[in-house]
# Entry
Amino acid sequence: MTQDNLRKLLNDMSLDEKIGQLIQLDARFFGDAKMVTGPTGNVELTQDQINYVGSVLSTSGASTLKKLQKEYMEKHPHHIPLLFMMDIINGYHTIFPIPLAQGCTFEPELVKKAAQIAAKESTAAGLHITFSPMVDLVRDARWGRVMESTGEDVYLNSCYAKAMVEGYQGDGLHKKGNMGACLKHFAAYGYPTGGREYDNVELSERTLFEDYLPAYEAAIKAGCSMTMTSFNTINRIPSTGNRWLMRDVLREKMKFDGVLISDYAAVEEMVTHGIAMDKKEAARLAIEAGVDIDMMSAAYLGELKTLVQEGEISIDLIDESVMRVLQLKNDLGLFENPYKDACEEDEKNIILCDEHRRLARKVAAASLVLLKNEEELLPLPKESEGSIAFMGPYAMNHELYGSWSWLGTKETTVDIRTGVLAKRSEKVEFYDGCPMYRPGTRARGYEEGNLHKTLDQYFEEAVEGAKSAKTVVMCLGEHRAQTGEATSRTDITIPEVQMELLRKVHEVNENIVTIIFNGRPLDITELEKLSKSILVAWMPGTEGGNAIADVIFGDVSPSGKLSMCFPRAVGQTPIYYSQFRTGRPSSPNADFNFANGYIDQPVTPLYPFGYGLSYSEFTCSNITLNQAELVKGDKITATVTVTNTGKRKASETVQMYIQDVFGSVVRPLRELKAFEKIQLQPGEEKEITFEINEEMLRFYTVDMSFKAEPGKFRVYIGFDSDAKEMAEFVLNK
Ligand code: BGC
# Structure
């Protein structure tokens, strides 16, 4: 539709119709009650109102959505099509690893391909928009939603934000297989006080701008068509009613011109926050802040009309928002083809097809992080005299898809047992080991089922199995529903009953490889002492079992790098590598107690950001800069030689960090500025170059101007955030 026609349509619409475009309801109101992602009690409406609602969340399937669209459009006075949206977080039916795990690939191009496939499957099923990517910066493992982010780093998150938006949206929303991406949650949702879900965020403007906003900005620059507000307050103001945040920052400064949607019921929740007296005031605050769509609350639905009629808000405000929604529908080509790509035949052919499964397997393998490999216990032999015993609640568990995968199923997911048996069928044993939790434990999302054995029987069988095995592979972790929305925890260890199993097994066999399944960094301090090898599998998705088998049997060398630090104890959280310098830095050798940190633990994490081993050895040497001075507009080239000094072909991720030695405000210890993942044959060496320019050195200075300050900088290049190879340069005036 032309812009003129779109405007004409807007002018022709009644106020009720206009307000309808600004409301999103879930599928229950349209007779489909599959998924509910928030409170449901407050929304009551008439059939007339339903007939005008502009978008629907959380239902999919080509035939369902085509029918729904057809019936709706027939009733709608202007036959304006509905928008269908859903949380496609790590895949539609083909489930990829959770985003935190995707973050560990350090391969934005691969992550982009995963998003493309998610979009292909979702659009065939009739969807138009995904509520992804979530690019909230996360540094506190107590918060359950860290699994939905790509991690703790500003730059890395920005690379993935861009990649995911490009993957979903491709070269145009209207083209086949592409869908709109909804960036979330704006802003700083990843920094709730104490890691407590839905808690308040107190953050300086400097930290907000410098650390928390860049990933959103990268998604916006990539053309992201929607943004979602966040549940939290920032410095005491809920985002959904924060005019400054939405109008001055998001729209003016960050140049976002797409649709802004509230998070689930967040408009009405401003009443509970205590900053709106009632729904009417909440609706006014949100529309004035520029929130276009009210997701699942009764505020816009019941109050916008009165606000206009009483002259409290102008019709222009409504028109501005309606126009943005119509524009999005137009960008998707829905006025010409309201069903877009919905097609039962395509659903049958592409969903979970071999090509999609192959990519899911590749991404999963690339996201596995090898933390430890004493005595080279991994890779395991495909044939050997000695047997291998796999045990623990994940040894034969198909629930590997994380908590935000609506359509992931046990039936379509490959477990470890299946993956292993495809590589080695002789002398491999599988034992339950123990249930996920001590019998009788109640944990969110966990169903104990029929245990058939006493705990002692589980343990006895496992210990007997461990005695006769050469190597034991412990498959341990948290239940998938223990991370995700509303799953903050004060204890971030592996469930105690699993640790008890590990201790018992360790008494009879010390050749232990532990594979951890997790949606957050865990405190694995004890587990680490009891395991010779540790592989972090996260929630690896549909092809998880195959990908793990590829890695543990050495067909693929592990190459994942931690996208968040692993703490030594929950008391260290939030912990991240790019901390600020203090006046009393801690030093492992300091014979001085009044230093930064704790008296019962070092200040460093157990495993740092960017860390991960492969099956080979790499060195990084001869860091050189082509010039020691930099001027604005120019660039320095940093070069290192990376050599595979080990015995296997493997990948390594070369990472460049920069430290600003002096600034008008205290600067981080170092910040990731570039990385490159390479693959080398044994003995092969390669020169890797990174460019450094003045733009990369900018920050919010003492007067809040965003610029680089002249002075000394240190460049560190290596394989994790502790990289030691260093060179210095000076930025001239
Ligand atoms: C979550 C969002 C999600 C929305 C719709 C909310 O509870 O915070 O991330 O997109 O529900 O399902």
Q: What stands out?
A: Residues 105 and 263 are 29 Å apart (CA to CA). The chain has a mean pLDDT of 96.
